[in-house]
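ARCHIVE RECORD
Type: protein–small molecule complex
Small molecule: pyridoxal-5'-phosphate
Source of inputs: curated submission
Record status: active
Notes field left blank by submitter.
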Amino acid sequence: MSRPALPPQLARAVSFLWHNPALQPAAATLHALPYGNADIAAAIARWQRFAPLLARCFPDSVAADGRIDSPLLQQHVQDGELLIKADHALPVTACIKARGGVYEVLCQAETLAQAAGLLPPGSSYAELAGDAARALFARHTILVGSTGNLGYSVGVMARALGLQVEVHMSSDAKAWKKDRLRTLGARVVEHAGDYAAAVASARQLAAADPQAYFIDDESSLLLFFGYAAAAHDLKAQLDATGQLPTPARPLRVYLPCGVGGAPGGVAFGLKCLFGDAVQIVFVEPVASPCFLLRLASGDDRLSVYDIGLDNRTLADGLAVPRASATVAGMVQHLVDAVVTVSDDSLLAEVRHQWQQHGLRLEPSATAGFVAHRLAASEWSQEVIPVVWTTGGNGLPDEVFLPLLAG
Ligand SMILES: *Cc1c(COP(=O)(O)O)cnc(C)c1O
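STRUCTURE (tokenized, with ligand):
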């Protein structure tokens, strides 16, 4: 089968900026999709229903209003000012997966509780922390495959409600991430293979168990809309600073990308809100550019192994060999560009952000800064740059300090 020629830098595993030739105007693209603002509004409404429960489950990290959101920070850089959407400091799990993984657990908890008659009209969702709901949840299991952070977000939320949880982890998942899950009372199943193999095994087991629910990182639209709701949080913060993006001076948002769910959901939400006044840049490790590969080839089946890459990267949250076909179908005409970045540059950025700015980031979460530097020189245009820092505040010292030692 013939397919478009791939950019030569891709298989050479070098860092580069790629403009998506399939980019289309936002309005027409969104109009043609079967999902839109109503789906995001439904996700926001669900987050609001659960706010009292979240405040009750996580009194130490979630504010009294029950919202899971992060600050919008500013950083002065050589060529001006950078906005930082600081999801490394999100409540509950200090990682962007708190938006998707937590959200899908809430969806399933709501479904179970409604079916059992535990949520009569007018009831407060805070009651789901009570004995009747816990007894119900204890009979159900959530399964998920993960490189680490999704499993943790799902695990924290599921265990807080009393659900059983089983996390299938890839061989590249970090040991401390597995230990942290076991401490929560999650079952951790280790796989010799990569992330895709871990997901496949969780999917298969869940299909055979009527009491099990599988959170499918490769195709879940619930995850996607949980992430998409974040666009409204950013808009509210931008409005408060008086910054109004326009197509002539758009937001340029850098989103670290693994399977595509988190950046894809956020991108979708942002394009729904800002249209062409936002540019979306996904950022991937040079060894795992699965989304770029999917966009450039148009082929859902291709993995990074097929072009000779090894999917080995320090950025464990982004070590994914094949993009989500579901997400690619949704955002293939909405992603403006993809930047690939080297492990060395990520590590240098971890150090820089900690030493110069006091931000505690995991390597995956620094990808946007590195990409911004590259894009600022090759793709100059007046923009409002936003770097999305996707995780890291929860890194234990024994994991974080060695990254600084070099
Ligand atoms: C999971 C993750 C991402 C990317 O999310 P995907 O849905 O896999 O694309 C980015 N950064 C961090 C820290 C993550 O854990």
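CURATOR ANNOTATION: The chain has a mean pLDDT of 94.
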